[in-house]
Amino acid sequence: MSALFGFFLRLFICFVAAKFLLQAVGVESRQYLIGLTILLTANVYWLGYLTFRDRPAEAPGRDRAPGRGKPGEAPPAEGQG
């Protein structure tokens, strides 16, 4: 459900941005509005992919504070943090 909501939220934001851009340029065509909305939505997903593709996947259910050792390493003893 959250993935579907996220998609439609991004689509709506891109639609509003496309509407504002086309009004600023002075274009009143529905085809341009739909095309620019699709282009902006694809751009949002493409930039998200480029941002997160190089990050290593965390193991599910693994809570590790940032900077607290390497994965698979035993946690430091109390008082040695």
Secondary structure layout:
Layout: H1 2-25, H2 30-52
Helix pairs in contact: 1-2
What is this structure, in a nutshell?
The protein has 2 helices and no strands. The protein is an all-alpha fold and 81 residues long.
Structural notes for this entry:
The protein is mainly alpha-helical. It is built from two helices and no strands. It has helices at residues 2-25, 30-52. α1 crosses α2. The longest helix is centred in the N-terminal third of the chain and has 24 residues, at 2-25. The model has no long low-confidence stretch (mean pLDDT 83).
| Average of the residue pLDDT scores | 83
Ends distance: 40 Å
Rg from alpha-carbon coordinates: 21 Å
Helix segment tally:
2
State the helical fraction: 55-70%
The major beta sheet can be summarized as: none
Beta-strand fraction estimate: under 5%
Which structural class do you get from the secondary structure elements?
mainly alpha
Which regions have little confidence, pLDDT < 50, spanning 5+ residues? none
Q: Give me the strand/helix succession.
A: HH
Q: What is the 3D shape?
A: rod-shaped
Strand element count: 0
List keywords for this structure.
single chain; 81 residues; mainly alpha; 2 helices; rod-shaped
